[in-house]
Amino acid sequence: MPSGPPAEPPEELTSPLAYEGVWRFTAPALEASVPQARHAVRDLLAEQCVPVAAAIMDGLLLIVSELVTNAVRHAALLSPQIAVQVALGANWLRVAVEDDHPYRPKALEADQGDLGGRGLWLVKTLTAEVGGTCGVEHTRNGGKAIWAELPLTPPATSPPLLR
Predict the structure, then answer these.
(1) Locate the Histidine kinase/HSP90-like ATPase domain: which residues (predicted)?
(2) Is 2 inside a domain boundary?
(3) Is residue 4 included in any domain, yes or no?
(4) How many domains does the chain have?
């Protein structure tokens, strides 16, 4: 029986993939920041050559729009700037929108006649449909970060994100 140091795993199992990392950008808490944030996330994923499935991308971009819209509508008074963070792992991605408002929102189902109020509920639904998770965390400055973590490819049993 040979003795010696244990065998090292192959480098491809221990080295981060080229697209793994964390990116953060800020934007003013204005309506114009909603499409800008959505485009910035889409462009970042394309530039990093992230192998994200089309169905995940569609849901992700809707989640970014909803989270930035909520920050603009509900936190702008106390948070003139918002931050968007994208973290990428080998098989997952996480997007978070941070503001300086201390209120932690709850996802509410809205009635059919309601014109708004479904943003976080939609984020939770889209995330759950692909086996992801979402939540709200306090930030060091007393604000909050609302995040959604999604797989890069949907599970085999997952229904389509957008109906």
Answers:
(1) 28-147
(2) no
(3) no
(4) 1
